[in-house]
Amino acid sequence: MFTNKEMKLLGGRYFTIIRVEEKYVELISNNTRHQWIIYKNFIASDKPVTLYHKHTADTRYYHKHWETWSVAKAVESIKGHDAYVIEHGELVRWMKQKGRITYGSI
């Protein structure tokens, strides 16, 4: 279950929430249109939050992006990823076309 404080991190203008379930929230970054799942593992773990990612809505599957300690750190990771993609967008597209970037490498 996500707390009210965690849900506030996901609200606002930065994200569009697609779906909220007990263990995960699926959302879109309004800056890059990349899609994310923030999954909370309720079993005791040193990193109970897993972040999944896909680049486009028509990509069939998400890939595991990162494990972390909190929803706040997951949001921070998404924003850092967005900044990288925005800053290096043309380079990233060119490298994907040439097969030099695969899923999970950025």
Structural class: alpha+beta
Radius of gyration: 14 Å
Distance between the termini: 29 Å
- Main sheet characteristics: 5 strands, antiparallel
Question: How much of the polypeptide forms β-strand, as a percent range?
Answer: 25-35%
Low-confidence segments, given as residue ranges, are: 102-106
Q: Count of helices?
A: 3
- The overall average pLDDT, rounded, is 86
The helix content, as a percent range, equals 25-40%
The count of strands amounts to 5
Write the H/E string, N to C.
HEEEEEHH
Shape: globular
- Widest sheet: strand order? 1-2-3-4-5
Short account of what is shown:
With about 110 residues, the chain is of the alpha+beta class. The chain has three helices and five strands, in the order αβββββαα.
Description:
The protein is built from three helices and five strands. It has 106 residues and is an alpha+beta fold. A five-stranded antiparallel beta sheet has the order 1-2-3-4-5, with helices on one face.
Q: What topology emerges from the helices and strands here?
A:
Layout: H1 4-10, E1 15-20, E2 24-29, E3 35-40, E4 49-54, E5 63-68, H2 71-87, H3 89-97
Antiparallel strand pairs: 1-2, 2-3, 3-4, 4-5
Attribute tags:
alpha+beta
